[in-house]
Amino acid sequence: MLAIEAVNLTKVFGGFRAVDGVTLRVEEGVIFGLLGPNGAGKTTTIRMILGLLKPTSGYVRVYGIDVERDRRSVLRITGYMPQHFSLYEDLTVEENMRLYASLYGLGRGDAEERIRELMDEFMLRDFRGRLAGKLSGGTKQRLALAVALLHRPRLLVVDEPTAGVDPPLRRYFWGKFRELKERGVTILVTTHYMDEAENCDRIALMSRGRVAAEGSPLEIKRLAYGGDIIELVTAGDPRPALDGLAASVLEFEGDGSYSRVRLLVPDASEALVPLTRELEGRGVRVVRAYQVPLSLEEAFIRLTSRG
Ligand SMILES: Nc1ncnc2c1ncn2[C@@H]1O[C@H](COP(=O)(O)OP(=O)(O)OP(=O)(O)O)[C@@H](O)[C@H]1O
Ligand SMILES: [Mg+2]
Fold it and tell me: Residue 41 CA: which ligand is closest?
């Protein structure tokens, strides 16, 4: 089942197309990352998905529900942690949680139990009487995530949840996302941290209001680089022996006796052993052969600076 089906979403502000024909299909139970440089249109897309902003054109269904027609039903099954802290700064942690629990329609007993659970889960107990406006950045983010989860949503939308968050808490948040995913919750997340993006099942890379690329982190990297990269250290120059093999030379360094070559291949895990054997069969002594890890950050830069 699709948790999100956003088709041809467009948002024009004045004459400016902030989102320009974005189509996203997010399967239930995955962690889906929406990436892209500042101003790419991620938050605007999210706001349309949640029915908080009316698209200029296009439509959204969340778990099959038409967002424009039945926003209330969508809000009941979605949790949203906005990019900027949006809880009541002049209410305490506990008051904010109570207020949102009643807005989400939780009954008294259920609300108290859920608040207790989430306070423990997000280490908020010591801050329960503190005004939300007086919390540190990380504690604010913990509260915002706890509030987004009060009504046990099936879809959690988190817009830069780890911005300004220290590394241990970032890791804790991602552990929580994985736990939620294991329970079947779908997560739509934006982030500027590439190490976090590697944890997504799928990624859509946005650039100037459009989806520039979509796929798993590995697919995105292959798309940007044109394949996988392997590096060989050989005795002598292996290049003449590469003739007719599905590998192109990206870099070469040699001192006459040893060479180091970087090759582009369609799939490193399939190519590494046969390629090495073939070269040895052709009389090249291969000293070392290994796959070079591709960088998602580099892929991101390549794909968003095109055109
Ligand atoms: N209400 C609005 N009125 C006019 N322009 C807007 C409005 N909201 C967003 N924009 C513009 O639309 C573009 C996309 O903004 P958006 O906030 O969706 O980007 P983003 O990808 O979330 O960026 P960031 O990574 O900085 O959060 C930006 O150029 C922004 O200035
Ligand atoms: Mg944003």
Answer: 1
How many separate domains does the chain show?
2
Residues 12 and 158 in one domain: yes
One domain for residues 10 and 54: yes
DSSP state of 293: P
| Residues pairing with 290 in the sheet | 231
Q: Where do the H-state alpha helices sit in the chain? A: 42-49, 71-77, 93-103, 108-121, 137-149, 167-182, 194-197, 217-225, 268-281, 296-304
Q: Name which residue sits closest to atom 3 of ligand 1, judged by CA.
A: 13
User: Per-residue pLDDT tens for 234-261?
Assistant: 999 999 999 999 999 999 999 989 999 9
Strands 155-159 and 186-190: parallel
pLDDT at 281: 96
Q: Is 210 in the pocket of ligand 1 (CB under 6 A)?
A: no
Cβ neighbours of residue 19 closer than 8 Å, sequence gap 6 or more: 9, 10, 11, 41, 44, 45, 48, 55, 209
The reply to whether 168 and 292 lie within a common domain is no
Tell me, what's the pLDDT at 12?
98
Does the beta carbon of 82 sit less than 6 angstroms from any atom of ligand 1? Answer: no
Q: Are 279 and 234 in contact (CB under 8 A)?
A: yes
* Residue at token pair 């804790």: 172
Residues 162 and 238 in one domain: no
Residue 205 maps to which CATH number? 3.40.50.300
Please identify every stretch of the chain with a pLDDT value under 70, giving residue numbers as ranges: 306-307
Query: Considering 215, 238, 265, which residue would you say is the last residue of a domain?
Result: 215
First to last CA, the chain: 34
In this structure, what CATH number is given to the domain that contains residue 281? 3.30.70.980
Q: What is the pLDDT of residue 306?
A: 61
Q: Which domain holds residue 254?
A: 226-304
Task: Name the domain boundary from 171, 193, 215.
Answer: 215
